[in-house]
Amino acid sequence: MKRFYRLAIASAIVGFGLGTLNTAQAATFTETASDQGWWAAEDGLNGPNSNDNINYVTGNIRGTDLRNYFKFDLGNLVGVSSATLQIQRFVGSGNPTETLGFFDVSTPPNVLSQKINSPNNTIYNDLGSGKNYGNFKVTTSGDSSEILSFALNSNAIADINARKGNFFSVGGALQGDLTEEYLFSESGGQAFAKLVVNTNSTPVPEPSALGGIMLAGIGGWWLRECLKSHD
């Protein structure tokens, strides 16, 4: 019976130690005003944009073709296995359902932030062409405060992992021939897009986790000694 209790206590210590080890967590990047917005095509009716405008409308509105962008500082993020772009719905118009495409962006991040230089055909075209990160059906009606989630595809995952320590940019463009069809209108408040990622990287243990590792080691030694004493 004493042997049973010793084994049970040792096993509990091992279990507790392993339970305190860290696992990789999802990371969320919330950006600022310069890191999201829209660029217009040069043949539209709207005037220039503003660097302080965080509105990310995309589509055709008041005779102007618009595409949006979102850029994120990846820092030292490594081993990304999935990435989801989260954007508040705000206001849409047009068909009941529109197709929204996300694309890679070759325009440098510091140039993207200079929205005052819109309209610009080169940047407008860049935001809706190139490597596709996924196409999504989005309804034009709904709760304006709803957060829409877009799971980016393997092209995006590869580019995120390749851009460690740099910015990762996404361009958004409505697909098809558009006339007064748009998404995310009236998004000029304090709503910022988020990039939520999951990683496969092994985290550096925090002090509490190191304590768990030590407990696991002690528990393992105790369990071995208990078994040896009864051989």
Can you describe this structure?
By secondary structure, this protein is an alpha+beta fold. It has two domains: about 50 residues; about 180 residues, Jelly Rolls, CATH 2.60.120. The protein has five helices and twelve strands. Strands 2, 3, 4, 6, 7, 8, 10 and 11 form an eight-stranded antiparallel sheet that branches. The two termini are about 15 Å apart. The N terminus is likely disordered.
Could you outline the blueprint of secondary structure elements for this entry?
Blueprint: H1 2-19, E1 27-30, E2 36-40, E3 58-61, E4 64-73, E5 80-88, E6 91-93, E7 97-104, H2 109-112, H3 121-126, E8 132-139, E9 147-151, H4 154-162, E10 167-174, E11 182-185, E12 194-199, H5 207-228
Antiparallel strand pairs: 1-12, 2-4, 3-4, 3-11, 4-10, 5-9, 5-12, 6-11, 7-8, 7-10
Helix pairs in contact: 1-5
Give a brief description:
By secondary structure, the chain is of the alpha+beta class. The chain has helices spanning 2-19, 109-112, 121-126, 154-162, 207-228; strands at residues 27-30, 36-40, 58-61, 64-73, 80-88, 91-93, 97-104, 132-139, 147-151, 167-174, 182-185, 194-199. The strands form 2 sheets. Strands 2, 3, 4, 6, 7, 8, 10 and 11 form an 8-stranded antiparallel beta sheet that branches. Strands 1-12-5-9 form a 4-stranded antiparallel beta sheet, covered by helices on one side.
Give average pLDDT, whole number: 80
Large-scale geometry: globular
Record field, number of beta strands:
12
Rg of Cα set:
25 Å
Largest sheet: 8 strands, antiparallel
CATH class category of the largest domain: Mainly Beta
Number of domains: 2
Which fold name corresponds to the CATH topology of the largest domain? Jelly Rolls
Helix content: 25-40%
Distance between the termini: 16 Å
CATH architectural grouping of the largest domain: Sandwich
Q: How many distinct helices? A: 5
Order of H and E elements = HEEEEEEEHHEEHEEEH
Structural class call reads alpha+beta
The fraction of residues in strands falls at: 25-35%
